[in-house]
Specification:
Blueprint lengths: L1 E3 L5 H11 L1 H7 L3 H11 L2 H12 L6 E7 L2 E9 L4 E9 L8 H16 L3 E7 L3 H10 L3 E11 L16 E3 L5 H10 L3 H6 L11 H7 L2 E8 L4 E9 L5 E4 L3 E2 L5 H17 L4 E7 L3 H8 L4 E12 L2
Parallel strand pairs: 4-5, 10-12
Antiparallel strand pairs: 1-2, 2-3, 3-4, 5-13, 6-12, 6-13, 7-8, 8-9, 9-10, 9-11
């Protein structure tokens, strides 16, 4: 039976996180014991009311599906809903029941969810060296490559600590009115197929209220603006429930001053260091050469290689 996640499934979730995603967990640094508190926050009556209302108005935040056998969750996946797509994350199966097609069943249920919602695409990420998963997605289920990306990581946020509390010249806080200019920059650097499946939006650059509420997340974003509008933008978020701060895919125009872009990255790094983050990590598409170069110049390095795969909903 496939059903929605229940708070009683949290021990299974914790087990899957700590045993089935070792490469990702080595970067993110989740604290399993804190997931019980996160679950309590998500399933409080007021949180459930907000999430339910968002679903009713056609703006669902997520859906967490599990395969239930004998009252126990033995496989999981989390769905989110960017643009015309359903994004699939955390596909995991208990090793004791593998090779019985449970992951395939979950993914087929995901397709049914997407069809009911009128979404056009199913999208997921897979590590480049995860041959069994790629065989399932690309071989059996008909997914194809959409983009190549990498997890970039800075291992010592303390390198950015110190300095003036004032923002450097040419850098200011992000405003919602910056979105149009930043989207234009990002789209010029995004392959048309990627833009069609996962159209770039910047409105979430500084985080969301629901994310802050459920996960105790702090978020902030800045732009490079030398008086003629945004030329670059970078957003970061941090939660006390994980070791790593997270940065959104940076946006950097070819016209942006390299020295000011450097200060943008260092401003973001200093913010993360001030919150005690042990690492800073984020996913950057290979096609985003300017954004990746800006990070690598300040000590970020590639930690994981992955592919974003997709297929149409039929």
């Amino acid at each position: 039976m496939i059903r929605d996640f229940r708070p009683s499934d949290t021990p299974t979730l914790v087990d899957f996180l700590t045993t089935q995603f070792p490469a990702e967990e080595a970067i993110i640094g989740s604290h399993p014991e804190r997931f019980f508190e996160i679950t309590r926050r998500v399933y409080r009556w007021d949180s459930r009311l907000i999430l339910g209302l968002l679903r009713l108005v056609g703006k669902p935040v997520y859906r967490f599906l599990v395969v239930d056998e004998g009252g126990r969750a033995v496989a999981t996946t989390i769905l989110t809903f960017p643009g015309p797509a359903v994004y699939i994350s955390m596909v995991a199966t208990d090793p004791k029941v593998r090779r019985r097609g449970l992951a395939t069943s979950l993914l087929r249920r995901t397709q049914e969810v997407a069809q009911r919602m009128g979404r056009q695409y199913l999208v997921l990420d897979v590590l480049s060296d995860n041959a069994p998963a790629r065989a399932l997605y690309e071989g059996r289920l008909g997914y194809g490559a959409l983009r190549e990306a990498a997890y970039l990581v800075h291992d010592r946020p303390s390198d950015f600590a110190g300095g003036s509390a004032a923002l450097p010249a040419g850098i200011r806080r992000y405003r919602r009115s910056d979105e149009s200019a930043l989207v234009k920059i990002a789209r010029r650097q995004t392959p048309s197929e990627v833009e069609r499946v996962l159209p770039r939006k910047v409105s979430g650059l500084a985080g969301s209220r629901i994310e802050a509420r459920l996960f105790r997340t702090e978020s902030v974003a800045w732009v490079v603006d030398r008086g003629q509008g945004p030329e670059a933008g970078m957003g970061v978020s941090w939660s006390p429930d994980v070791d790593a701060a997270h940065f959104a895919d940076p946006i950097v125009s070819p016209t942006a001053d390299p020295a000011t872009v450097r200060e943008l990255v260092r401003t973001a790094g200093a913010w993360c260091a001030a919150r005690g983050a042990l690492r800073i990590a984020g996913q950057v598409p290979v096609a985003n050469g300017p954004g990746r170069s800006a990070l690598e110049r300040e000590g970020f390095h590639g930690a994981l290689s992955l592919w974003t795969l997709y297929r149409t909903v039929r």
